[in-house]
Amino acid sequence: MIIRYFAWFRERLNRDTQELDLPSEVKSVEDLLQHLRKTDEDFAAVVPPETTIRIALDDELVELDTPIGAAKEVSIFPPM
Question: Among 13, 1, 3, which residue's Cα sits nearest to residue 55?
Fold first, then answer.
């Protein structure tokens, strides 16, 4: 899966994309965010749990409880 970061997330993480293989327990967008916070210290510092963010799966904005399913790309946007 490809993770794309936008706006100040990209600037603070010093990367615009990241590719990773998700473990089987990551089923929803919220699961993905929790996984990234556990495995990526920089992500955890920039995107703490109380941060309001916007997420798109394959270019469609979704809620945090949305299943990831067969999505190939996740885009993470700061609040607008």
Answer: 3
Residues 49-52: contacts with CB under 8 Å, at least 24 apart = 51/79, 52/79
Half-sphere exposure of 71 (CA within 13 A, CB side): 25
CB-CB contact of 9 with 46 (8 Å)? yes
pTM score of the predicted model: 0.91
Chain segment 15-67, per-residue pLDDT in tens: 999 999 999 999 999 999 999 999 999 999 998 887 789 999 999 999 999 99
In three-state secondary structure terms, 45 is helix
Burial class (CB in 10 A: 0-12, 13-18, 19+), 52: exposed
**C-alpha distances out from residue 47 to 30, 44, 60, 69, Å:** 12, 5, 21, 23
